[in-house]
Write a structure and sequence with these properties.
mainly alpha; ABC transporter involved in vitamin B12 uptake, BtuC; 372 residues; globular
Length: 372
């Protein structure tokens, strides 16, 4: 009976993911109780922080957008048998490229926006492809190379911010991108006299447009559909997945494994770079001096794991992650509960997500013992 129960939940990914999220919240509630806080009240504050106002939901989607893309980046590498720890550095490269092309290049908006996106994806793709090349040519494990390249990207961005012509005078930030490179919705109109009057008469839209509403989420959804199509409906996707399943069998079948490793890491890097570009074009509009990693790329690893390394799964896990990251910290000013509880909840969810693999391993060994 126990064996059948374990087998059911280890094979049903959706059910186990839901249970993992539930267990994460339960353990978070236990920690809140131990700290002297009412978990129902704390989670109520978090839910109001997510769904209470139109602007809250808007911020959740805005925060989730780069997480969806970095999660998709890590998931794509997983699907092709690689572990991309460098999404953080690739995100930084994409963001830096977006600022450079968005500020220095002057084009009409209809050309400028796709051009910035393309340049950011290409730059980050080349940066990610470098790890693939190092593995294919010299056998350098992608985990090692991508971790090192994260720091290279961080300090390269800081170096550029202090470069004359790139640094905005009087601050440790870059120049702001041109309005033609921005994907923010109605950014100029809502500051005009006509816009202010209309928004006063429409409270819902006034509250919603207090946030940097942008087209980033739609771009992310479009990229998710494209990656799903590539992985499942194209020859390239078949080759990449074949290498991920078994590189030796793929090589025996005539697939160039080394070439596909480079392509996989390049596409993965490009996706993370898109996350950086969308964040710059829709939210920050510039980049600042970094003392440490921003975290979007590292959070993307958790997003990919919760989403079972599938494109559609990354959308929902990215939204969940964004909601927890935005709504969770609101517990602290409202009732004094530490916002770090949310990081514990996320960690527990990821921990339980990994358990099906452990259950499968246990069942496999038990079967071997019986056979012996």
């Amino acid at each position: 009976m126990i064996k059948k129960f374990l087998k059911l939940f280890s094979n049903n990914v959706f059910i186990f993911t839901v249970i993992s999220i539930f267990l994460g919240l339960i353990i978070g509630a236990i920690i809140l109780l131990a700290a002297g806080f009412n978990p129902l009240e704390a989670y109520g504050v978090m839910l109001r922080g997510i769904f209470g106002k139109p602007k809250n939901l808007s911020y959740v989607i805005i925060r989730s957008t780069p997480l969806i893309l970095t999660g998709l980046s890590v998931a794509f590498a997983f699907r092709t048998g690689l572990f991309n720890i460098g999404a953080e550095g690739q995100f930084i490269v994409g963001a830096t490229t977006a600022v450079a092309v968005g500020y220095f290049v002057h084009l009409p908006m209809i050309i400028h926006i796709p051009f910035v996106i393309l340049c950011a994806a290409l730059a980050a793709g080349l940066y990610g492809g470098l790890s693939g090349f190092l593995k294919a040519r010299f056998g350098v494990h992608e985990v090692i190379s991508t971790i090192m390249l994260n720091w290279v990207a961080l300090y390269l961005q800081n170096f550029l911010i202090y470069t004359p012509g790139f640094q905005k005078p009087g601050g440790e930030v870059s120049y702001t991108i041109q309005p033609t490179a921005s994907i923010t919705v109605l950014n100029q109109w809502k500051r005009t006299e006509e816009g202010v009057s209309w928004l006063i008469a429409h409270p819902f839209w006034r509250d919603l447009l207090k946030t940097p509403v942008n087209f980033g989420f739609l771009i992310a959804i479009g990229i998710v559909v494209l990656i799903w199509f590539i992985l499942n409906k194209t020859t390239l996707g078949y080759r990449l997945r074949a290498v991920g399943f078994n590189m030796y069998a793929a090589e025996y079948g005539g697939i160039n494994v080394k070439k596909n490793m480079i392509i996989s890491m390049a596409i993965s890097g490009g996706l993370a770079g898109l996350g950086g570009a969308v964040h710059v074009m829709g939210v920050s509009h510039n980049i600042a001096l970094l003392a440490a990693m921003e975290g979007y790329g590292f959070d993307g690893i958790a997003v990919a794991l919760i989403g079972n390394s599938t494109p559609v799964g990354c959308v929902f896990s990215g939204l969940l992650f964004g909601a927890l990251k935005y709504g969770g910290p609101k517990m602290q000013p409202a009732m004094g509960a530490p916002s770090e509880i949310i990081n514990i909840v996320i960690g527990v969810i990821v921990f339980f997500i990994a358990i099906p693999q452990l259950i499968r391993l246990i069942l496999k060994f038990r079967k071997k013992d019986k056979d012996v």
